[in-house]
Amino acid sequence: MLLNAHPTCLFALILAIWPQPLHALPGSEIWNVLASKISIPDWFVQSPPSIQHRELEKRDGTNYNPDGTPFLWLPQDEYSGKNFFDDFDFFIWDDPTQYVQSDYVNRTTAFEKNLAYVTDDNKVVMRTDNTSTLERGQHRDSVRINTKKIYTTGLFILDLDKAPYGCAIWPAFWSTGFNWPAEGEIDILEGVHDNEHNQITWHTTQGCIYDENATFTGTIPQHDGVPSTDCWNQANQGTGCDVIEWSRASYGPFFEAQGGGVLAMKWDENDISVWSFFRAAIPKDITAGTPNPSEWGLPSARLMNTMCDLPKHFARHTVIFDITLCGAWAGASYATSGCPGTCDERLMHPENFETAIWQINSLKVYRKQLLSGNVTVVSGSGAYASMKAHAPVISLVIASTLTFVISI
Ligand SMILES: *[C@@H]1O[C@H](CO)[C@@H](O)[C@H](O)[C@H]1NC(C)=O
Ligand SMILES: *[C@@H]1O[C@H](CO)[C@@H](O)[C@H](O)[C@H]1NC(C)=O
Ligand SMILES: *[C@@H]1O[C@H](CO)[C@@H](O)[C@H](O)[C@H]1NC(C)=O
Ligand SMILES: *[C@@H]1O[C@H](CO)[C@@H](O)[C@H](O)[C@H]1NC(C)=O
Predict the structure, then answer these.
(1) How far apart are CA 23 and CA 110, in angstroms?
(2) What is the pTM of this model?
(3) For 29-55, what is the mean pLDDT?
(4) Residues with CB under 6 A from ligand 1
(5) Burial of 80 (0-12, 13-18, 19+ CB in 10 A)
(6) 135 is catalytic
(7) Which Gene3D superfamilies does the protein's record reference (predicted)?
(8) Is 29 a catalytic residue?
């Protein structure tokens, strides 16, 4: 892999990252790694006179595990623009929650009826049918999609202009395993009617508790006088462990009025945390593609590993967008929501669904790359040196004649 060529200083730098060889990864990731600072021991730099040594800008975004091991979040997948729907499956079965009055359409129907499309300026849109007048009790067409790819851990960053809201409307941006609830569920953005506060929720099998002593900005609601900290799907009448965001602009009309923003979900062995930023407050490192959660301040919600064995309760998730109408949440709460009439009546009129719309700029997935291990520098001339990594400090050596293999 030739990274650079200079008339007098032609060199090739082959980077291999342990445990995964870096040359298997796209170019942008190499930039991420190379933009880290270099440190080469003096004895090595001084030995062959032809070797020059240059320090690059330190890459922002080195994070640390509680045990001190450094790591970066490196780009893995991007879902955006014209190809967005290629990497998703359309879910065409009945919504698995109760009392639902929406039908999920297949890919062909979704495109034909304009329930899923990409605009000329690359906005990804998903919506419910907003043209059909229905009889009472008839279902309205809607869309649910999930990534074809399956993830166990990752940093998921959704940039969106609009999330669905309004009476009878119950959207979610979430992830879950095929084996529910054994593989867990993470609800990142969810709400009903004209809620203004996003609700973040985890559902698991027995034995996963939300540690109230974790640091986060949201509030834990009570269900029947009990704080909903038990994530077991059979506790708290199945509500899971949930946290309500403090910001009024985290869901619904105010979120949209702010131009939407970014929802970020970090899932690793330490915790599963969710942040939301409205558009004016999106951290620069997110925009730059070098996300650094450790600089984002407290998350809205954080499920710690202290009282929940995360690898045991969460695995093999697809990432999902849906819009449910009525159903176990929006239907059951309709009467007390302040919305007019009944959920059935609401459903009949297409003009009630103008706000049942996802408008998405991108979903980017980053993977955690540990920066620990040993650095090995191999030269093409046969010289060989090995040194212990001063991770996260990564070295780049420029030499006139040598090829270096640096493994971290
Ligand atoms: C999609 O759904 C429509 C309407 O139910 C049906 O007619 C069509 O055969 C389906 N297409 C595929 C490819 O399943
Ligand atoms: C329905 O949705 C489409 C697509 O988002 C939009 O262009 C249209 O203005 C909406 N309203 C009606 C009545 O079609
Ligand atoms: C949270 O911290 C308080 C004060 O240190 C402690 O008394 C309590 O037991 C902790 N709760 C949990 C669930 O660990
Ligand atoms: C790094 O080097 C040390 C000492 O040579 C060795 O014990 C250790 O197993 C190496 N670690 C890896 C990940 O290769």
Answers:
(1) 38
(2) 0.81
(3) 39
(4) 106, 108-109
(5) middle
(6) no
(7) 2.60.120.200
(8) no
* Nearest residue to 125 via CA among 84, 91, 182: 84
Nearest-angstrom CA–CA distance, 166 and 130 = 13
Q: Report d(CA 213, CA 65) in Å as an integer.
A: 18
Q: Which residue CA neighbors atom 4 of ligand 1 most closely?
A: 109
Phi/psi of residue 343, nearest 5 degrees: -60, -40
Sequence-separated contacts (24+) of 58-62 with Cβ below 8 Å: 59/32, 59/33, 59/35, 59/290, 60/285, 60/288, 60/290, 60/292, 60/295, 61/285, 61/290, 61/291, 61/292, 62/36, 62/292, 62/371, 62/392
Nearest to 38 by CA among 398, 399, 405: 398
Give per-residue pLDDT as tens, 264-280. 999 999 999 999 999 99
Beta-carbon contacts of 180 under 8 Å, excluding residues fewer than 6 positions away, are 203
How many angstroms is it from 309 CA to the middle of ligand 4?
A: 28
Ligand lying closest to the C-alpha of residue 108 = 1
Q: Ligand 1: which of 93, 108, 139, 143 to mutate, judged by most atoms within 8 Å of the beta carbon?
A: 108
Contact status, residue 250 vs residue 274, Cβ threshold 8 Å = no
User: Residue 208 contacts by C-beta under 8 Å, 6 or more apart in sequence?
Assistant: 184, 202, 230, 231, 232, 241, 303, 307, 308, 309, 313
Classify residue 320 as exposed, middle or buried by CB count within 10 Å of its CB (0-12, 13-18, 19+): buried
Looking from the CA of residue 130, the nearest atom of ligand 2 is 1
Kindly list the structural domains of the chain, giving each domain's residue range(s) and its CATH number in brackets, ordered by start. 13-62+371-407 (no CATH), 74-368 (2.60.120.200)
- CA 311 – ligand 4 centroid, Å: 26
- Give pLDDT tens digits for 147-195: 999 999 999 999 999 999 999 999 999 999 999 999 999 999 999 999 9
- Ligand 2 neighbours (beta carbon < 6 A): 114, 125, 127, 130-131
- Give the distance (Å) from ligand 1 centre to CA of residue 100: 21
